[in-house]
Amino acid sequence: MSETGQQVLSVRNLKKYFDVRSGVLARKTGQVYAVDGVSFDIAAGETLGLVGESGCGKSTVGRVIMRLLDPTSGEIHLKGDDISTISKSDVRAYRREMQMVFQDPYSSLNPKLSAGTLVSEPLKNFKEGSATDIRQRVTKLFERVGFKADAMERYPHEFSGGQRQRLGLARALAVNPSLIVADEPVSALDVSVQAQVINLLIDLQDEFNLALLFISHDLAVVEHVSHRIAVMYVGKLVEITDTQTLFKNPQHPYTEALLSAVPTPDPLASKEKIILAGDVPSPINPPKGCRFHTRCPEAMSKCEKIEPLFLELSHDHKASCHLLSN
Ligand code: SF4
To answer: Measured from the CA of 322, which atom of ligand 1 is nearest?
Structure first.
């Protein structure tokens, strides 16, 4: 992995609430607190893994950063510009700076367009050079993600899942972005193919000096890819630090539980698995106090009433738990 550089993305106190409506008049009856005050930074050449169980709000964070969804409040700074409140038409100017790679590239690739057209489309939209320049750049990108030139004439359905994800990467990289948001980019792929796509993503990030937000439920994959990891639970970050520290010295009981479920390469190494009681609470009515208190093996009475602060434990290590402030 490359050395990290200047800040590309800064997210501050980001919130995204969705209205819950019911009845024939579709009256607002509540809110889904999908993202509830999330802050982090990503530098050039750096990967931040965003991890948490299904429904914790991590994909919504990615979509709000990309401005596919409008934030309820908070700030999103892309290379210093606050893009959180700009209009949809102004967002377009920033599209070339930030690209998204989806879990299922098939649904994001127009099946009627050839692979070559799909990858050249963003370049044409941003009027990036002559037809010959674009053709040359697309040919290079195809080579870079491991395709022969004749793959440009094929259609999405003619590619396997892993090949489609490589095609999605070529398309995302076409306009030379500074930031890529990859939302579960390998979770739909066979395990044998996952490693190829992940290694390609790591190589491309290094080569293009990308800031990468890697969203996944799979902590083992996130560990392999990320410089730093942010752990999310019911709309909030509960811990953020560098990958090594998170794995060696987790401070939040939820992080400990997630880590206890990660398989170790050494079959003889014993590890006690922490089984969390109950289900993930609904983000419509999140628990008061610490949101994790309904499942936390170490919960105390104050955890039900008082929300813990997101404490700076050491340089670049923050976590929110009352145990850390005692
Ligand atoms: Fe558990 Fe309490 Fe810490 Fe929340 S604040 S993680 S409930 S000990």
So the answer is: 5
Q: Which residues lie below 8 Å from residue 316, measured CB to CB, with a gap of 6+?
A: 228, 240, 241, 242
pLDDT tens digits, one per residue of 179-209: 999 999 998 888 888 999 999 999 999 999 9
> What is the 3 state secondary structure string of 94-112?
HHCCEEEECCCHHHHCCCC
Per-residue buried b or exposed e for 177-200, using 16+ beta carbons within 10 Å of the residue's own CB: bbbbbbbbbbebbeeebbebbbeb
Pairing of strands 73-78, 47-51: unpaired
Ligand 1 pocket, residue 276 CB under 6 Å: no
Give the residue carrying structure tokens 């009027």.
127
Ligand 1: which atom is nearest the Cα of residue 293? 7
**Which of 232, 276, 295, 300 for a ligand 1 pocket mutation test, highest count of atoms within 8 Å of Cβ?**
300
- The answer, yes or no, to whether any atom of ligand 1 lies below 6 A from the CB of 324, is no
Q: What is the pLDDT of residues 254-272, one digit of tens each?
A: 999 999 988 777 666 667 8
Pairing of strands 98-101, 47-51: unpaired
Distance (Å) from CA 287 to ligand 1 centroid: 12
pTM more than 0.85: yes
